[in-house]
Amino acid sequence: MNIRVCMAKLHNVTVTEANPNYKGSITIGRNLLEASGIKPYQMVIINNGRNGDTWQTYVIPGKTGEICLNGQPPAHHFKPGDVVIILAEAFVTAEEHAAFIAKAVFVDGKNNVTSVESHLLGQEL
Questions:
Q1: What is the dihedral of CA 34, 81, 43, 85, to 10 degrees?
Q2: What is the DSSP string of 51-113?
Q3: What is the pLDDT of residue 22?
Q4: What is the set of active-site residues?
Q5: Is 43 helix (H, G, I), strand (E, B) or coil?
Q6: 43-48: strand order across its sheet
Q7: CA dist., res. 108 & res. 35, Å (int)
Q8: Structural domains in the chain?
Q9: Confidence label for 24 from pLDDT (cuts 50, 70 and 90)
Q10: Handedness of CA 23, 26, 28, 30 (dihedral sign)
Q11: Please, which residues have CB within 8 angstroms of residue 48's CB and are 6 or more apart in sequence?
Q12: pLDDT over 70 for what percent of the chain?
């Protein structure tokens, strides 16, 4: 059996750009990818704190601090300055779940990492 888990969360990151002329995806700064363990082309869910919109897409790496929603649909729902939560998912086996470590990354107003929390999923109950 596979279990769908949140493997990483980027908490309250600020959108720096919305590019309607790109063919899709979200650009996330390499500093945030390294801190969270999120991989290029991994699927993520983006939740907008301003309007409640949710979007799912894949990740491409960008410059430090960058959060850019790419493509016409997300560029209409996410604007520079919006504060969002990005959730990265993974599928783990029941055996892997007990030892799986999820990360929550916290940032300042310029998307610089201020702290990282690690959570051992098998001990969360």
A1: 80
A2: T--EEEEEEEEESTT-EEEESHHHHHH--TT-EEEEEEEEEEEHHHHHH-EEEEEEE-TTS-E
A3: 87
A4: 25, 58
A5: strand
A6: 17-19, 67-70, 26-29, 54-62, 43-48, 83-93, 2-14, 101-107, 113-120
A7: 14
A8: 2-123 (2.40.40.20)
A9: confident
A10: negative
A11: 54, 55, 77, 78, 82, 84
A12: 98
DSSP state of 33: H
pTM over 0.90: yes
The two tokens of residue 101 are 């470590």
Tokens standing for residue 50: 């301003």
Residue-wise burial string across 54-64, b where 16 or more C-beta atoms lie within 10 A, e elsewhere? ebebebbbbee
| pLDDT recorded at residue 124 | 58
pLDDT of amino acid 23: 82
Q: How many CB atoms lie within 10 A of CB 29?
A: 23
